[in-house]
């Protein structure tokens, strides 16, 4: 049974992704999870797990081959929901198939385990919505960890 579960776990990432139901949009507010640190390992004598600090890169990728859009806001929040900073001083235009990114340093643990970005964008007409996600990473010495966190459109 263990071998079957292990085989299944190894094969699932190789399967083709199912197509999403993507609808054109003229703008969205997108929530994106961030992991500025994660708990891991066993609990110590005080009942606390070990903490691993991660860097996080927010990627905003225009998937529309014909039209651009404007990123109007990129806010970074901590676990308690307190806004830590706004990354966009003035609206930034992204052309067709263009991308931009925003970075939270490895040493910045202010966000906590429940940190998040809220990204707002708008277009002049309905377009293919962008892909907005974070890449959370740790690369030091022989140890490395990297994973993505997809954004999800929310109702504001």
From TrEMBL:
<dbReference type="Pfam" id="PF11322">
    <property type="entry name" value="DUF3124"/>
</dbReference>
<dbReference type="InterPro" id="IPR021471">
    <property type="entry name" value="DUF3124"/>
</dbReference>
<keyword id="KW-0732">Signal</keyword>
<feature type="signal peptide">
    <location>
        <begin position="1"/>
        <end position="19"/>
    </location>
</feature>
<protein>
    <recommendedName>
        <fullName>DUF3124 domain-containing protein</fullName>
    </recommendedName>
</protein>
């Amino acid at each position: 049974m263990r071998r079957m579960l292990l085989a299944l776990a190894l094969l699932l990432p190789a399967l083709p992704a199912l197509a999403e139901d993507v609808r054109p949009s003229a703008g969205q507010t997108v929530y994106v999870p961030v992991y500025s640190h994660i708990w891991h390992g066993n609990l110590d004598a005080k009942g606390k797990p070990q903490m691993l600090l991660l860097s996080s890169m927010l990627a905003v990728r225009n998937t529309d081959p014909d039209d651009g859009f404007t990123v109007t806001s990129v806010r970074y929040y901590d676990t308690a929901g307190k806004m830590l900073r706004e990354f966009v001083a003035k609206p930034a235009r992204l052309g067709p198939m263009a991308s931009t990114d925003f970075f939270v340093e490895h040493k910045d643990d202010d966000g906590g385990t429940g940190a998040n970005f809220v990204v707002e964008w708008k277009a002049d007409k309905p377009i293919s919505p962008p892909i907005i996600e974070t890449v959370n990473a740790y690369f030091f010495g022989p140890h490395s960890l990297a994973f993505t966190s997809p954004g999800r459109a929310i109702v504001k």
